């Protein structure tokens, strides 16, 4: 896929200064493919990549010894639904407009560092109000200018005028700055043109707003906002670039229209019905369901005075989304890890693991959703998602056994990304 090539090329273009060999001693090494952990294992890192995984011996000559023997070593985590390059959610609907593109990028740099230190070494950033700030942040991280996870970015939202991807309720939308409306479309022709524009300006994949949103003024989650023809136009252009489109879709009708249009994944899927689940399974479409943040919105949003409309829509979707998630687990629908980080503070991404377990996954399944399965969704499973020779040396160390208590992933002791220790 184009997205993979672009990000991999950026990462390889800027190898860590003074790249060297590191010999990591693991207390327990988690094999996410089998869902088991092994003891007595060491990992030889050569530059950015894993050279060998083997029973421990003396470190090779010249290799730095890194003792993580007190920890379980897990592949670097992947969050497929984040908003690093944005102001974050709060009571002030106008905050994205009040924050300049430059300030937004600096906020993104902070969010990226916090996210990396929380153990998430790769993210998919699925949209920002200030279009293309995510592209700038991705490139700064890849160039070694700021610390952060590898980023796959959407550039902007493809959305209808006044839809769930617009900053509604602040000023008339046609008076918003141009960089806040890069993906606004009115028909299939415009959808095609805007999609091409985003790829031309650095997007790795495309994010469509197929239905209304919980956290957008004047839209309803169950309402279809993009037609199937408009979404098909986006999908076709994305495929021509060797990439894909994902769809923000809460409502059942919008989910099914997006699947028919050929999307690669569905974000949220809050109101998915049995037919939609069957369609997703048959088509091999991934669901990325943010089953944690509904509690944050209800508790903190209420305390902070978020718009009543947001709180009402959140209450109407949270429980039914979790029930849909449980059905998806039982029916074998493909599920990958995505949290909507930015709705809640960045760095708390791992809180969702416990919710996924509560709603039907085993700890091993939940961890795989955030490692090997997430890497597979972005088409990067040969380089990310597990601790194996040839892959990027992305690893975290946690105290305790995440296969017994997945919440230990909420407190990460050490982080390595591409052979560099970030924490």
Q: Please, could you describe this protein's structure?
A:
The protein is an alpha/beta fold. The chain folds into two domains: 1-153 and 336-423, Urease, subunit C, domain 1 (Roll), CATH 2.30.40; 155-288, TIM Barrel, CATH 3.20.20. It contains 13 helices and 17 strands. The protein has helices at 2-13, 95-98, 101-117, 133-142, 188-200, 228-240, 252-261, 274-283, 293-304, 308-331, 352-358, 363-369, 372-377; strands at residues 21-31, 36-39, 41-46, 49-55, 64-75, 77-82, 120-125, 150-153, 157-158, 206-209, 245-249, 265-268, 286-288, 335-336, 395-398, 412-417, 420-421. The strands form three sheets. Strands 1, 2, 3, 4, 5, 15, 16 and 17 form an eight-stranded mixed β-sheet that branches. A six-stranded parallel β-sheet has the order 9-10-11-12-13-14. Helix 4 links the parallel strand 7 and strand 8 (150-153). Helix 7 runs parallel beside helix 8 and helix 9 (293-304) runs antiparallel to helix 10. The chain is globular. The two termini are 31 Å apart.
